[in-house]
Amino acid sequence: LSYTFPGASQPALQTVNFTLAPGETVAIVGPIGAGKSTLVNALPHLLDIDREQLFLDGQDITRIRLQDLRSAIAYVPQDSFLFSTSIHNNIAYGNPTADRTAVESAAKQAQIHPEILNFPQQYDTIVGERGITLSGGQRQRAALARALLADAPILILDDALSSVDNQTATQILRNLSEGTRRKTVLFISHQLSAAASADRLFVMDQGKIVQSGTHAELIAQTGLYQTLWDKQKLEEILQ
Fold it and tell me: Which residues contact residue 88 at a Cβ distance below 8 angstroms, ignoring those fewer than 6 apart?
């Protein structure tokens, strides 16, 4: 898969090649501008990519009806939009017929249920326009709960846990990778402690996947991942 934005001289993605297994959790890490968001935006066909480059279950995504493709993918961006309605309705937006039990189950997976119980009217609490009454981490977890309730087989998180602490983010990813109905999860994260729990990691730089493997494999290699890991650990010590 290669892609160059219109008018750009350098490709944002350069011959990226990988296969995801059903139920696999894969983290994408790397410096800013490495092409991480471009890659995950290509999967739901948010970019006009060429044919015969990207396939879902063997089907060229450019030939799949857009509605069918996107119904198979739940996509959570870094800044998700919340409506000025109840937290229940915000979570149930993608599945309006869902009952309270299903909504609460999704909220528990997204690690926001206990905080909702502390809201003035719990799940009936009105969320301000764009979720202004919630913290950044609460907005992100509410958006994740919405995506989980939609129950698509593929879940894409584009740095969608950036405002969530490392411990909570790690627990969320553990929730996603457990159980009999595991989703295929592809997530971008700058929190390497959370990313380390993934089945596999792709390390991107300048539009290419320069390393891939488990955390244990990558930490043992001299390379970009080891450098990023050491830098983050040093920053944590200095905080």
Answer: 100, 103, 123, 124
Pairing between strand 25-29 and 184-188?
parallel
- pLDDT score recorded for residue 130: 64
Return the minimum-mean-pLDDT range out of 121-130, 161-170, 175-184, 220-229.
175-184
What's the rounded Cα separation, in Å, for the pair 6 and 184? 30
What pLDDT does 239 receive?
61
Question: Mapped to the 3 state alphabet, what secondary structure does the chain carry?
Answer: CCECCCCCCCCCECCCCCCCCCCCEEEEECCCCCCHHHHHHHCCCCCCCCCCCCEECCEEHHHCCHHHHHHCEEEECCCCCCCCCEHHHHHHHHCCCCCHHHHHHHHHHCCCHHHHHCCCCHHHCECCHHHCCCCHHHHHHHHHHHHHHHCCCEEEEECCCCCCCHHHHHHHHHHHHCCCCCCEEEEECCCHHHHCCCCEEEEEECCEEEEEECHHHHHCCCCHHHHHHHHHHHHHHHC
Q: Give CA–CA dist 164/144, Å, rounded.
A: 12
Which residues on adjacent β-strands are paired with residue 28? 188, 202
Looking at residue 41, its pLDDT comes to: 92
Burial label, 65 (beta-carbon count in 10 A; 0-12, 13-18, 19+): exposed
